[in-house]
Structure to design on (558 residues):
């Protein structure tokens, strides 16, 4: 009898706990967070121009999409959230201050938020179209990688961060046009963009190469895989070692690779510094370096 | 006595399964292409820049149907295409000057919008763009958005239609790269074997069209660091692939 009562008490306690959980906690867990906007939400997946007006009014130099959608885009579905209290949380999606007297908005797009789209860009097709074919009488008088990739520092080129290098051809008529956002922007799991590319040979400078600035060449001379890349997915601006050793490890010219491999032979703790920072230069040289030097590959630990 | 035997075989089986699942490192090769051509007999030998080449798996015999299709295709020069659509001679010359397949290959400078060198198609598109974009600089840089489609890139699209048909015929394993300014290009990550090197679409060179279809052997671990695979339209002892030249047909006058 006693045992039965205990069991009943347990069941009652559990039922009361479950009841309070359901009425107090659960709704909070499942409630939508209106301070965050997601393009992945089913109801946010209508045609882009349902919300985004193209062009926006604030585009300074050329027709562009430079601002958030108007209030109508939100109010049409979110009237209750829009007029909830003095500082509706939904306003903070676009507005830096949640106040009916302040229109201040974040930059579009908000750099602090994660990216919700990846970019689809076929380098191969653009190389075919924008770059000159065959002989040129005016060598520099043609479009090339620098149309989109301007110099950011002496080490890296910049990736396009806005529509300026797209819309001059794709504003209208040439697909994907400005109203066909999905032609370039593909919905993805939100991610933080990588702002600095991974560089193995950190000491290389695009504008370098001695007094004659011999590094200034056509991009595809070294970035050999770009002209065959049909997508940005998995794209690496990889440069094979042969791109360097054509000059930097040539008899009668320079022996930069051989010199450092010999230095490792003599001292296995030697750090390669001609091209690399210590984090890379202290690793085992890859097999490709030894192949170029026409030597069998070695591991530092095997050197006495 | 039976249990240890069973255990031994079970372990052996497990080791075999694990080893079978380990990916075998694939040894790939590289083909360094060097394309040097003469526009005519008196012209110097120069690198053929900005030309796409394709590497198709298999021998010439295995790709015979495709090669026949490449060789049989109708030859259409850029000049003939633009004459046919009624383009101005100024536009034809502008395209010819930098050997462009479409208007996208170079920027349109102000001198080609107005003045004695003006291209009529550009001038019209510029005027429309001025009204639309309200800014001279944007109007010039965005000029192609107001060109008629066939003027803009009709020739390129015609070529692409032929190319896509041939590529479909060539199968899914085709590699392609474009030569740089010096006429050099690298095919990387190639499985060892025999390939056909082809330009698929004949290349306009002076007064001729050149087609290359040559068999290439790729060996595992070949880094192509020594001698490049030399391609030309002229025979030479170092040239491994000589193109077949056909004279440019006269443009139809209809």
């Amino acid at each position: 009898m006693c045992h039965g009562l205990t069991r009943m008490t347990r069941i009652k306690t559990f039922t009361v706990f479950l009841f309070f959980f359901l009425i107090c906690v659960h709704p909070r867990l499942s409630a939508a967070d209106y301070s965050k906007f997601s393009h992945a939400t089913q109801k946010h997946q209508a045609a882009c121009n349902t919300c985004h007006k193209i062009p926006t009014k604030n585009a300074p130099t050329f027709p562009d999409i430079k601002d958030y959608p108007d209030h109508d885009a939100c109010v049409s579905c979110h009237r209750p959230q829009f007029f909830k209290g003095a500082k509706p949380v939904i306003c903070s999606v676009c507005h830096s201050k949640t106040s009916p007297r302040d229109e201040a908005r974040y930059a579009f797009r908000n750099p602090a938020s994660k990216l919700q789209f990846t970019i689809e860009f076929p380098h191969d097709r653009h190389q075919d179209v924008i770059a000159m074919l065959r002989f040129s009488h005016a060598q520099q008088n043609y479009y090339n990688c620098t149309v989109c990739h301007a110099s950011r520092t002496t080490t890296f080129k910049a990736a396009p961060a806005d529509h300026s290098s797209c819309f001059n051809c794709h504003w209208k008529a040439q697909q994907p046009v400005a109203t066909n956002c999905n032609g370039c922007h593909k919905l993805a799991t939100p991610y933080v963009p990588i702002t600095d590319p991974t560089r193995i040979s950190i000491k290389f400078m695009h504008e370098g190469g001695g007094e004659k600035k011999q590094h200034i060449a056509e991009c595809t001379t070294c970035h050999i895989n770009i002209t065959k890349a049909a997508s940005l997915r998995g794209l690496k601006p990889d440069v094979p070692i042969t791109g360097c050793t054509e000059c930097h490890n040539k008899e009668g010219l320079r022996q930069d690779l051989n010199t450092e491999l010999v230095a490792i032979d003599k001292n296995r703790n030697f750090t390669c510094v001609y091209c690399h920072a210590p984090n890379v230069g202290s690793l085992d040289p890859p097999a490709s370096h030894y192949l170029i030097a026409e030597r069998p590959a070695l591991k530092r630990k095997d050197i006495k | 006595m039976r249990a240890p035997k069973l255990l031994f075989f079970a372990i052996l089986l497990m080791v075999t399964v694990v080893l079978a699942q380990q990916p075998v490192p694939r040894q790939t090769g590289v083909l360094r292409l060097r394309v040097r051509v003469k526009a005519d007999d008196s012209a110097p030998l120069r690198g053929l820049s900005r030309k796409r080449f394709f590497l198709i798996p298999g021998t010439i015999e295995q790709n015979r149907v495709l090669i026949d299709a490449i060789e049989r295709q109708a030859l259409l020069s850029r000049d003939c295409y633009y004459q046919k659509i009624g383009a101005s001679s100024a536009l034809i010359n502008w395209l010819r000057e930098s050997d462009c397949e479409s208007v996208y290959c170079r920027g349109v400078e102000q001198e080609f919008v107005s003045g004695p060198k003006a291209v009529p198609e550009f001038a019209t598109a510029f005027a429309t763009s001025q009204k639309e974009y309200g800014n001279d600089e944007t109007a010039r840089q965005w000029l192609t958005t107001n060109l008629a489609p066939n003027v803009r890139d009709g020739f390129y699209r015609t070529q692409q239609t032929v190319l896509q048909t041939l590529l479909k015929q060539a199968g899914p394993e085709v590699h392609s790269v474009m030569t740089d300014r010096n006429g050099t290009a690298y095919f990387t990550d190639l499985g060892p074997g025999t390939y056909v090197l082809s330009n698929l679409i004949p290349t306009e060179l002076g007064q001729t069209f050149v087609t290359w279809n040559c068999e290439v052997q790729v060996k595992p671990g070949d880094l192509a660091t020594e001698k490049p695979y030399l391609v030309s339209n002229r025979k030479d002892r170092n040239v491994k692939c000589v193109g077949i030249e056909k004279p440019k047909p006269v443009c139809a006058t209809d």
